[in-house]
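WARN no homologs supplied; continuing
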Amino acid sequence: MANNENADFMDSLQSDPNFIYILISAAIWVIGAYMFIPVLDTVLTTIGFAATCFTTAITALKRPTATAWPGVIAGVVIKIVASLIGWIPILGLLAPLISIAGSVLILFFVVPLAIQQGEEILGETLKKFQDTKEEAAGEEETTTESGTE
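OK structure emitted
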């Protein structure tokens, strides 16, 4: 069963219509992480991260959340492995690449969870806010009507 879940979350990543754009964004992020030109490295890292966030969020409402948790766990494990590899002298050079791969997995699978599960909570909160606003407007109207008589 674990192998099936593993295959499912990887299939969901590879079958996303923006998969190529996600890879390009992650590549820009990696280039920025390995560049040693003071301003350009920050710009490329920021652009790569922002583009990755954007491209993973575009189709977030269409992605199933059933395969999300195995993907998030895989991303976290990859990030932990990257932080451990960072301490090994020669292999430490691969740590940013591995860390960004884990970050992309986390972004890809957490965004649908947050949007799809948070949508209900956000909708309820906005409805309560709208109801409170309407009640306040109704009370204001009754106050002004009784004050003019």
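The chain has a mean pLDDT of 84.
OK
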